[in-house]
Design a protein that fits this description.
Radius of gyration: 25 Å
CATH topology: Rossmann fold
Distance between the termini: 50 Å
GO molecular function, one term: GTP binding
Shape: globular
Largest sheet: 7 strands, parallel
Bound molecules: guanosine-5'-triphosphate
CATH superfamily: P-loop containing nucleotide triphosphate hydrolases
Subcellular location: Cytoplasm; Nucleus
Number of domains: 1
Pfam families: ATP_bind_1 (PF03029)
Structural class: alpha/beta
Organism: Neolentinus lepideus HHB14362 ss-1
CATH class: Alpha Beta
Number of strands: 7
Number of helices: 13
Subunit structure: Binds to RNA polymerase II.
Strand order of the largest sheet: 3-2-4-1-5-6-7
């Protein structure tokens, strides 16, 4: 693995961003802490840059450089917007995302000294994977840095073929949504080794046999149930999906498999450069082109309307002059995202943080409209 000091003479590679995603309780935070301590234990140590994006977590087992909880108090958000817990978490993430450019700037500032940037996402997986803010954050980091998704799976709870299939379908949907290099991390292998999963992924007949022998897959007449038939067909579809994936078994408890995980991460860098980046460049060029076409069309229409207007109403047209002094300064109030590891610390909090820390002042975030 490459450390920051080994590249002093050549140009330093950009850090690689690891986005950890997984069902509640799969072990995301414990995993992040495990890979964090692995990087600290290297010789020389290569401490990563850590971001906690879960506003509702009560305890984070690692010292995050940027913590969403310093910027948004999700309980206050629930009160102010009259929301339940999930709505509160989602809105907190949305508010934080409006300032994500500041987060990227802080990460950019560290890109000379760190090799890995790690994002821990909210416990409720869909809040990140199926929200606009999750997509914005993912796109923003992936367009600035090599990025890989680490999908954490609770291995002991995935041994039933139906649960395994559901988990794989979910992973598949995230892969096709983000199109980023993707690593399946079978966590908790100290409790349940992940060999069964590897076998099912490599040999769909083995999966079908497991499915057939699992209780509840045949009806009273011994015929396969609807669920069984559905999963049988799905396993054929997923076969293609497995080819695009790397899978590693890890125990965040003991540290087993962490080295293999980083090998998979490092291999993902070239995948990102060869596949994701050209696609991103192509999509950007296409978008710029269509935006330019729309702009040109609007401008032509506007100029035509203006010409007609000037002919119909020459006196008003003479008075209609732009005066820069009438322009209002509509810059948003800055919200300073805090990097906990930067000096001086503490003391750079924004108001919302002060209210989180027990101040009775209420937090006022802009509302739409
Ligand atoms: N035995 C074992 N337990 C683990 C492992 N990784 C995590 N756990 C346990 O699994 C539970 C959930 O771990 P978390 O790290 O809180 O999981 P999470 O995915 O961050 O959970 P959310 O906060 O809901 O997002 C905790 O009790 C951990 O101690 C592991 O590798 N082996």
């Amino acid at each position: 693995m490459e450390s920051s000091s080994s590249t002093s003479t050549e140009e330093k590679k950009k850090p690689i961003v690891i986005i950890t995603i997984g069902m509640a309780g799969a072990g995301k935070s414990t995993f992040v802490q495990r890979i964090n301590s692995h990087l600290h234990s290297l010789d020389p140590p290569a401490p990563p840059y850590l971001l906690n994006l879960d506003p509702a977590v009560t305890h984070v087992p690692f010292e995050a450089n940027i913590d969403i909880r310093d910027t948004v108090n999700y309980k206050e958000v629930m009160k102010q917007y009259n929301l339940g817990p999930n709505g509160g978490i989602l809105t907190a993430l949305n508010l934080f995302t409006t300032k994500f450019d500041q987060v990227l700037e802080l990460v950019e500032k560290r890109s000379e000294t760190v090799d890995y940037v790690i994002l821990d996402t909210p416990g409720q997986i869909e809040i990140f994977t199926w929200s606009a803010s999750g997509a914005i954050i993912t796109d923003a980091v992936a367009s600035s840095f090599p990025t890989v998704v680490a999908y954490i799976i609770d291995t002991p709870r995935t041994t039933a073929p139906a649960t395994f299939m559901s988990n794989m379908l979910y992973a598949c949907s995230i892969l096709y949504k983000t199109k980023l290099p993707f690593i399946l991390v079978f966590n908790k292998t100290d409790v349940q080794p992940h060999d069964f999963a590897v076998e099912w992924m490599q040999d769909f007949e083995a999966f079908q046999m497991a499915l057939a022998s699992h209780s509840g897959t045949t009806d009273a007449d011994g015929e396969p149930t609807y669920m069984n038939s559905l999963m049988n067909s799905m396993s054929l579809v997923l076969d293609e999906f497995y080819k695009n994936l790397k899978a590693v078994g890890v125990s965040s408890m003991t540290g087993a498999g962490v080295k293999e995980f980083f090998e998979a991460v490092d291999a993902s860098r070239s995948e990102y450069e060869k596949e994701y980046l050209p696609e991103l460049t192509r999509a950007r060029a296409a978008r710029d082109q269509s935006l330019q076409a729309v702009k040109e069309e609007s401008m032509t229409r506007f100029m035509k309307d203006l010409a007609i207007d000037q002919i119909q109403n020459p006196n008003a047209a003479l008075r209609d002059r732009w005066r820069p002094e009438d322009e209002e300064d509509d810059d948003d109030d800055p919200v300073n995202i805090v990097d906990r590891s930067e000096e001086p610390w503490p003391g750079q909090y924004i108001d919302v943080t002060q209210s989180r820390r027990g101040d009775s002042e209420s937090m006022v975030w802009p509302r739409p409209g």
